[in-house]
């Protein structure tokens, strides 16, 4: 069932990985997913990757929750590791969702 995300904050993280330390990346990604899920205001995540390019959308109740995630010490530490090891580049976009709907095949 599709979630109505109207009014939530979406953080879009688009990146290209270096291919270095795939095991370390997988461990860190799993840890960050689990850590984010425990943060106040967390509303979910969608992620896809192909050919080294990935798009991750994280959803937050409000701007304060998204900023708190950005500033979380463990997240900041992992972000620095990503800049040094796992990513060629990344882009981050933050927006409020003005309309949200979905469809599921029955």
Write the layout of secondary structure elements.
Elements lengths: L8 E9 L4 H16 L4 E9 L2 E8 L2 H9 L1 H14 E10 L10
Helix pairs in contact: 1-3
Outline the structure in words.
The structure is a single chain. With 106 residues, this protein is of the alpha+beta class. The chain has a single domain, classed as Alpha-Beta Plaits (2-Layer Sandwich), CATH 3.30.70.100. It has three helices and four strands; from the N terminus they run βαββααβ. The chain has helices at residues 22-37, 63-71, 73-86, and strands at residues 9-17, 42-50, 53-60, 87-96. The chain has a four-stranded antiparallel sheet. A hairpin with a 2-residue loop joins strand 2 (42-50) and strand 3 (53-60). It is globular and about 40 Å long. One of its GO terms (molecular function) is monooxygenase activity.
> Which ranges are low-confidence, i.e. pLDDT below 50, for 5 or more consecutive residues?
none
Shape annotation: globular
Multimeric state: single chain
Into which percentage range does the β-strand content fall?
A: 25-35%
Query: What name does CATH use for the topology?
Result: Alpha-Beta Plaits
Order of SSEs, N→C? EHEEHHE
Main sheet specs:
4 strands, antiparallel
Structural class: alpha+beta
Helix content: 25-40%
Task: Give the end-to-end Cα distance, rounded to a whole number of Å.
Answer: 10 Å
Gyration radius, in Å: 14 Å
Please tell me the CATH architecture by its name. 2-Layer Sandwich
CATH class: Alpha Beta
The number of distinct β-strands equals 4
Mean pLDDT: 96
Biggest sheet, spatial arrangement of strands = 2-3-1-4
| Count of discrete domains | 1
Counted by DSSP, the helix tally is 3
Keywords: Monooxygenase, Oxidoreductase
GO molecular function: monooxygenase activity
Pfam families: ABM
InterPro entries: ABM_dom, Dimeric_a/b-barrel, Jasmonate_Hydroxylase-like
